């Protein structure tokens, strides 16, 4: 009976989806007067300066505006809007106007009181909110501060440095497994595999050890991997489907809601099982200690479960995308790859214990190495998001003379920022890691978007940057990396972050 009812609802929803699509096409025409109103008459959508000039931007194109196009488009939208409107413009996230910043000075003004920015649901809809709406990534004010304080002992610089030996072990083990991976093909030149599909298991392996250290077994990893599959399906729904954006949608017994509930149940069971195992083995780890904070009333169970979810699962997309682009940069510019290889070899020459040597760990942490400059240049040339997730202003702001009222959504056009900001000079379109030798971090602080620019930047920063650098160092030491001749870099569709879809070749170095 229940399954028949379910099928009935599924059918009804399929039909309503179809009706909705037709409705959108028809109404996109009927929306025209409303678009006119938004652009020309609605004060809430117009941001004037003292000379009465508005901020320019494309028409709303209702019902969606650029809500989805800005994620799926491979930086073409950034180029188009920069050409037409410059480096301060307005786009539309549905019928909500969003201010886009792309000049470092404006971004500095925006982030001056970054802590008070409201993220609420970032206009990403109900489905997303249900999965991680109570996590540290969405919390604001004192709630956010309390969560960050609880997390700080396990994610600060010292904790990340202590984790380095384990990180190196994880990477070495993963590199050895490449030839035997199910996606790897032995070809004349070496090993060929789909880059992001193969690479995403590595950040998952590393971060699961950050959270659970040696309590994380092979079987646990298999379990996490299975949950990841459903997580990816859900993220596709969150960022590409319209109906799950609405809270009323969750009352229907659809396959999407079923998937969501299943995933949340699996996740909770996994977290509880891991904590029980930790107690049984008489061990301890950050995830368990953070759970003790729940028992002591320092934060709620939902906040805990959703934050661990963000750390372990939601960030995999970010890590996988960032890592893939780092390797693509190296593969595309063999001169840079060779230069980096020489640097790594020269460091290892004074490391009696090889990768396990303290000198090698120090090298990964340093910020004046070629490795570091390559990492920065890859972030600059290959931003993980074309437009950052919108945050909204808690207070009115004046940006370049324009009064922007509070509750306005603001995002950053990363590509324009990374290529048009004055600090990058005349060769900003050239891939040139050496540019960072001459630049001080203060000079590009607001011109390079990597781990967030405001005071609430990425919690995993100390791990993430070193993870990327250590992986690159270990890879170039053992392999020459290449993109097969006939391969063009394309993007995976239906993802929030820019994940490249490309084959890769690792050629072992004799
Ligand atoms: C290379 C990989 C990564 C990149 C590119 C990245 C990037 C980012 C960015 C851009 C933000 C938003 C910052 C903002 O709102 O201003 C963020 C937030 C966050 N990241 Fe990462 N991240 C990475 C890896 C990680 C890892 C490994 C972890 C966990 C150990 C992590 C945990 C978090 C958390 C919890 C937040 C929310 C922080 C908050 O709102 O307080 N990230 N990350």
UniProtKB/TrEMBL annotation:
One of its GO terms (molecular function) is oxidoreductase activity, acting on paired donors, with incorporation or reduction of molecular oxygen. It comes from Gigaspora margarita. Heme binds at residue 458. Signal peptide: none annotated. The keyword Lyase does not apply. Its cofactor is heme. The chain crosses the membrane at residues 12-31. It comes from the Eukaryota. This is Cytochrome P450. Belongs to the cytochrome P450 family. Keywords: Heme, Iron, Membrane, Metal-binding, Monooxygenase, Oxidoreductase, Transmembrane, Transmembrane helix. Pfam families: p450.
């Amino acid at each position: 009976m229940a399954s028949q009812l379910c099928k009935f609802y599924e059918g009804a929803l399929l039909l309503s989806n179809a009706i909705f699509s037709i409705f959108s096409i028809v109404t996109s025409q009927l929306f025209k007067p409303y678009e006119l109103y938004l652009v020309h008459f609605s004060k809430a959508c117009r941001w004037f300066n003292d000379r009465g000039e508005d901020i320019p931007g494309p028409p709303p194109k209702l019902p969606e505006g650029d809500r989805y196009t800005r994620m799926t488009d491979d930086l073409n939208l950034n180029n188009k809007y920069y050409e037409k409107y410059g480096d301060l413009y307005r786009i539309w996230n549905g019928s909500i106007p969003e201010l886009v910043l792309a000049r470092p000075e404006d971004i500095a003004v925006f982030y001056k009181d970054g802590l008070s920015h409201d993220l609420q649901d970032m206009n990403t809809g109900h489905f997303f909110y249900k999965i991680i709406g109570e996590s540290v990534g969405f919390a604001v004010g004192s709630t956010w501060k309390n969560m960050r304080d609880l997390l700080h002992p396990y994610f600060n610089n010292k904790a990340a440095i202590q984790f380095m030996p384990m990180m190196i072990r994880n990477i070495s083990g993963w590199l050895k497994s490449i030839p035997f991976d199910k996606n790897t093909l032995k070809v004349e030149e070496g090993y060929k595999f789909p880059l992001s599909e193969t690479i995403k298991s590595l950040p998952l392996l590393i971060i699961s050890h950050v959270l659970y250290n040696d309590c994380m077994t092979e079987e646990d990893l298999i379990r996490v991997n299975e949950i990841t599959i459903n997580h990816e399906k859900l993220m596709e729904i969150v960022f590409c489907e319209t109906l799950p954006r609405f809270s009323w949608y969750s009352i229907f017994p659809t396959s999407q809601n079923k998937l969501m509930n299943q995933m949340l149940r699996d996740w909770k069971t996994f977290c509880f099982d891991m904590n029980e195992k930790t107690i049984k083995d008489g061990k301890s780890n950050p995830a368990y200690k953070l759970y003790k904070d729940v028992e002591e009333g320092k934060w709620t169970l939902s906040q805990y479960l959703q934050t661990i979810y963000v750390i372990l699962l939601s960030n995999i997309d970010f890590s996988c995308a960032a890592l893939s682009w780092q390797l693509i940069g190296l593969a595309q510019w063999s001169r840079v790859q060779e230069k980096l290889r020489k640097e790594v070899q020269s460091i290892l020459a004074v490391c009696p214990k090889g990768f396990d040597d303290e000198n090698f760990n120090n090298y990964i942490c340093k910020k004046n190495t070629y490795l570091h400059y390559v990492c920065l240049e890859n972030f600059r040339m290959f931003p993980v998001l074309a437009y950052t997730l919108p945050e909204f202003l808690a207070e009115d702001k004046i940006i370049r003379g324009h009064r922007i009222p509070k509750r306005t959504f603001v995002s950053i056009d990363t590509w324009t920022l990374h290529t048009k900001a004055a600090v990058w000079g005349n060769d900003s379109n050239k891939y040139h890691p050496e540019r960072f030798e001459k630049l001080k971090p203060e000079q590009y602080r607001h011109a390079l978007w990597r781990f967030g620019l405001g005071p609430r930047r990425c919690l995993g920063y100390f791990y993430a940057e070193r993870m990327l650098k250590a992986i690159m160092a270990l890879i170039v030491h053992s392999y020459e990396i290449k993109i097969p001749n006939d391969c063009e870099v394309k993007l995976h569709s239906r993802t929030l972050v820019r994940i490249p879809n490309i084959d890769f070749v690792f050629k072992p170095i004799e």
